[in-house]
Design brief:
Elements: H1 11-37, H2 40-50, E1 56-60, H3 63-77, E2 82-85, H4 87-90, E3 103-107, H5 114-117, H6 120-125, E4 130-134, H7 140-143, E5 147-150, H8 166-185, H9 190-196, H10 200-205, E6 214-215, E7 220-223, H11 228-234, E8 244-248, E9 254-259, H12 260-268, E10 284-285, E11 290-291, H13 296-306, E12 310-314, E13 320-325, H14 326-332, H15 338-347
Parallel strand pairs: 1-2, 1-3, 3-4, 4-5, 7-8, 11-12
Antiparallel strand pairs: 6-13, 8-9, 9-10, 12-13
Length: 348
């Protein structure tokens, strides 16, 4: 741990820190005011975007354009097809991307940005509904829009109140709110998100369990009516050995689990006679399972909190389709850390 002396701030820089904190506080207060003032217009925008059968086209100039690109990315990754249209390029041919099934979202704090206003007539010709994110209802853009989402007359956070900062933060927050509420309304789930974000650590967390599990043909599976001895001797599989035998009933549905640890406990307590008893008497009945819609983060949560080493993966009718083994999971983790340590404790 670093010493407190390393965190001492030279007196000459105290004012900079104070200014930084004030900027963050000012922008945070603007967001709180925005949240308090959101009204039925937001719900209308949610419904319009949710019911859009084409694409959501987002348009903004300058800093508002950069925020628009982020909103476009958020919409795209959360289940709403979206594209960014640069207003300056739009009037030089890119307006051709517009279609009558689209929804147009335009961003302009002043509502008087010429490049933005030049896009609106084409949208109107195609009868494309326009949602604008702007300061107030009282500007040219608001007058020409179908739905107006106000961020309010906010003061920019810079000393002179000029550099777009508070206004763009409010635009981003409102855009995020719109995209995420629409996503929830569409029933967008983590496994859907994984389809659009397969890369990086986030993609790893969202990876489907079906891509990570050992498949059925590699598993030791036996009838729960067999003896413990027969289960041990007759359920062997070539290749890397799993730490558990999956037991199934007459319908082939998972009924229990018999692990190497279960066998070790029988031998340690000298219960040799049990080896010739049905395995159903000593198996773990109704073990914890994963379904085929589960994702990697579900696996980590269960293994680390329940302190178990194997999790069967079952179909909707509880037919075993795979198995998650903790020794495989540790190999999937991208880096060593507390999560790896937590999982390792399970096998100790």
């Amino acid at each position: 741990m670093s010493s407190s002396a390393e965190h001492l701030i030279p007196y000459s820089q105290v004012e900079q820190l104070r200014s930084g904190r004030e900027i963050v506080r000012q922008e945070a207060e603007a967001l709180l005011n925005l949240a308090r003032n959101m009204d039925a217009s937001f719900l209308s925008a949610v419904n319009l975007v949710k019911e859009c059968t084409g694409s959501v086209i987002v348009c903004g100039m300058g800093k508002a354009g950069l925020i628009g690109k982020k909103i476009t990315a958020t919409l795209s990754s959360t289940g709403t097809r979206a594209h960014f249209l640069h207003p300056a390029e739009a009037v030089h041919g890119d307006l051709g991307c517009l279609h009558e099934d689209d929804v147009l979202i335009v961003l302009s704090n002043s509502g008087e940005t010429e490049e933005i206003l030049n896009v609106i007539p084409t949208a109107k010709r195609f009868e494309i509904p326009v949602i604008c994110i702007t300061a107030t209802h009282h500007n040219s853009l608001a007058f020409r829009s179908d739905i107006v989402l106000e961020i309010g007359r906010v003061r920019e956070a810079c000393r002179w109140g000029l550099a777009p900062s508070t206004s763009t933060t409010a635009m981003l927050a409102l855009g995020d709110a719109l995209a995420l509420v629409v996503s929830e309304a569409k029933g967008f789930m983590p496994h859907h998100f994984a389809q659009f974000h397969p890369g990086g650590s986030l993609g790893q967390k969202l990876k489907p369990v079906t891509e990570l599990m050992r498949p059925k043909d590699q598993l030791r599976i036996a009838a729960d009516s067999e003896t413990v001895r027969d289960v041990i001797t007759q359920s062997a599989k070539p290749g890397r050995r799993t730490g558990a035998v999956l037991l199934v009933d007459e319908q082939g549905a998972l009924s229990g689990l018999f692990t190497d640890s279960d066998l070790a406990r029988l031998l340690e307590t000298r219960q040799d006679s049990v080896l010739d008893e049905p395995v159903s008497k000593v198996m773990t009945k109704e073990p914890l399972t994963l379904n085929t819609d589960s994702i990697f983060s579900d696996v980590i949560e269960i293994l680390s909190t329940r302190k178990i080493s194997e999790i069967p993966v079952v179909s909707a009718d509880r037919q075993p389709v795979g198995l998650i083994d903790i020794t495989d999971v540790i190999g999937w983790l991208p880096t060593e850390g507390s999560t790896t340590d937590d999982l390792a404790e399970t096998n100790s």
